[in-house]
Amino acid sequence: MHVLTSTEMKEIDKKTSTDFGITEEVLMEQAAMAIVGEIQKDFNKNSHLLFMVGTGNNGGDALAAARILHNEGYENIEVCIIGDENKGSRLFKKQLNTLKQFGFLDFFEFNVDFKNHVSTADCIIDGLIGIGLNGNTNDLIKGVIDIINTFKRGKVLSVDIPSGINANTGEIMGNAILADKTITFGSVKLGHIFFPGREYSGTIKVAPLSFPKSLFNISHRELVTPEMVKKLLPKRPKFSQKYDYGNVLILAGSSEFPGASILSAIGAQKVGAGLVKLITPTPLSSYVLNHEPGIIYKSLMKDKFSLKDFDLISKELKKASVIVIGPGLGRSDETMQFVRNVVEYSRVPIVVDADALYAVDSLSLRKNIVLTPHVGEMKRIVRTDEINIRQNYEYTEKFAKHKRATIVFKDATTIITNGERTYFNITGNTALAKGGSGDLLTGIIAGLVSQGLDVMEASIVASYLSGRTAEIISDEITEYYATPLDIAKNLYKAISEVLNV
Ligand SMILES: NC(=O)C1=CN([C@@H]2O[C@H](COP(=O)(O)OP(=O)(O)OC[C@H]3O[C@@H](n4cnc5c(N)ncnc54)[C@H](O)[C@@H]3O)[C@@H](O)[C@H]2O)[C@@H](O)CC1
Ligand SMILES: Nc1ncnc2c1ncn2[C@@H]1O[C@H](COP(=O)(O)OP(=O)(O)O)[C@@H](O)[C@H]1O
Ligand SMILES: [K+]
């Protein structure tokens, strides 16, 4: 599914009408039918439905839905229009006239009594502002939203996007409706998938309407879905053996951070790599053997990697089909020199993570190198203090393009981009907000690359699977308790779920 900006959505809307002859009126009627469908699922004909209506097309959608429900025999509908009706959009005015033609009369003014209307409602329908929001909510709308947000009795259903949420970034513009459910049209918008918009949207439903599918290709951004992951998951033909599934070389760890390397190695192995070789400075044999004796393990019997280790491992570099470098390395100058040499010398795909990201400035990157920064690392490598970098996907896209590399910007909404195409992963929860989750992800990416996926494909599948596993096991053992090792051991749950999509 494509993830759209408001400009792209408006473009699609326009072309649907000009190039395909499906008018805005038709689309609005379909949008209204979709809203009605959602309301009918949860509320019966006696339910008190309170429609909060702005004077743009978002309000038009809400008015049309109120009309259809009234016509269907819903008896307890109230409509409150916020703003100057005479200054409303063409379709808003048209919908208002049509509603009146249907004999609907239960309009009420926004005044001191408003709280009384709210207090008895079963459902508030938020059709105040949609993707046409511009700037911060004005005082009138702000006051309305504040009161609606005190509503606890029933449910809030937002039309298209919670009013006050920036459709392009997910930011709260002044204040915003905290919805239980949002029904959006055509495809999701960026504001639905970036926090805080993602949280404010509640459960998101997408009503396709009659937009021609081909028009969505104006967007180069997509949401990672289980169907996409299923298609990408490497095949495992019966007539095959371990060399068909690649050779992962992991260069990670130091006496200071010994555990990271093991998580990366386990990650690679649990998604099906043929051979996983872990070379680490410090002795870890008992840990590795305890957790996964199948991992080929070698310790250099020292504190950290340095340049002179390069000769020792150069034979291994030649055999590898993919390299992981970074987790737990430490950031000393000698280790950074080692990292630079490995990256310069190798031609195979490389996953550059954690401490190795500190050498990025001096690395010449290429398309089959993937960098996997979290928020702090991202800020450092792009040299910015910009607070909104987490929602600023364009920043990450430009950086990937400039560096000619693939970036996995890990966050609660993860951005995966090579500067030309961008994917957003929204699986996962706070079970992953723990040291070691990133090390595991790095290994999973490498394990998938070793089986033939390119770094972008592998990053999509890896982010989805680690996040989805976190969700599945949190239902059983909670987000507090689940650790990166639990995620690693339960990856099969997300894999089999995907295989059965
Ligand atoms: N794009 C599409 O293809 C479709 C759009 N539809 C609806 O149309 C909506 C977009 O309609 P519009 O472009 O008319 O815009 P909206 O109705 O989303 O927003 C414009 C209205 O919000 C008010 N407003 C904007 N910024 C404000 C602020 N900061 N403070 C207070 N008030 C503010 C304006 O005064 C105006 O009344 C979508 O969100 C969706 O609900 C649907 O009819 C289905 C088809
Ligand atoms: N609240 C959250 N929801 C979903 N995913 C999260 C959340 N917090 C962290 N993650 C994911 O967990 C991983 C954390 O990686 P990172 O911070 O590099 O861990 P570490 O370096 O300790 O191994 C990333 O894949 C990130 O996307
Ligand atoms: K809305």
Automatic annotation (TrEMBL):
KW Transferase (keyword) present: yes
Binding positions ((6S)-NADPHX): 57-61, 130-136, 160, 260, 328, 374, 439
Keywords of this entry: ATP-binding, Isomerase, Kinase, Lyase, Metal-binding, Multifunctional enzyme, NAD, NADP, Nucleotide-binding, Potassium, Transferase
Cofactor(s) it depends on: Mg(2+); K(+)
Source organism: Marinitoga piezophila (strain DSM 14283 / JCM 11233 / KA3)
PROSITE patterns per the UniProt record, alphabetical: YJEF_C_3, YJEF_N
Annotated binding of AMP, by residue: K410, D411, A412, T413, T414, G438
Residues annotated for K(+) binding in this entry: N58, D126, S163
Protein name (Swiss-Prot/TrEMBL): Bifunctional NAD(P)H-hydrate repair enzyme
Molecular functions (GO terms): ADP-dependent NAD(P)H-hydrate dehydratase activity; ATP binding; kinase activity; metal ion binding; NAD(P)HX epimerase activity
Record note on cofactor: Binds 1 potassium ion per subunit.
